[in-house]
Amino acid sequence: MNASERLIVLNSTKLGENSLVLHCLCREMGRRSFIVTVHKGGSRAMFLPLNILDAEVIENRKSDLWRLRGISPVHPLNGIHSNFDKNAISLFMSEVLWRAVQDGAAEGILYDWCERSILTLDALEGNFANYHLRFLMELAGALGFSPSFEGLAPFAEDNQREISDLLSSGFPEFMVYPLNGKKRSAIAGSLLRYLSIHLEIPLNIRSLQVLEELYR
Fold it and tell me: How far, in Å, are 17, 56, 108, 116, 199 from residue 142 at the CA level?
């Protein structure tokens, strides 16, 4: 059985010379991995993290690892790919989703929220250095446990005032809230610990260090 699917690339693993395993969040199938063929001389740019693709899913009854073909990008995401800072934030987002969303998880609402979050980052102009913090707070809500100050307080350490302010801020105010790289990293760490406890899995996000260095 073949079916059309909309998917978001979370990560990829090289498989031989001409194949990749794409780890994806799908609109209908949830979190799944697929094999794709990359023809000799072909570009792998289509399979960068957070790219949004349409594809035909080819079922393999002998394996859980199905194949994709007829792949096409849905949005160019030029705003992300042409901006170093946005690209760093997108890599953080994709790593969080890759570790937080478990295989087999299927929830259209989560997919739709993820796609909106990617397109929002792509379109943002001006100050967006706090976007990954907003992403983490909204992700908690998309996963079913919207954060409150009372819930986050045990993880906030010396950042209780900032977290309280951010929770009560609208989107424009959130983006311009004054934080340095060290503070952003500490708040992101608090939010990741909060998510880890609720998801019951460790979220050790290596790309967080990149953002701290970027916005030092």
Answer: 37, 27, 10, 12, 12
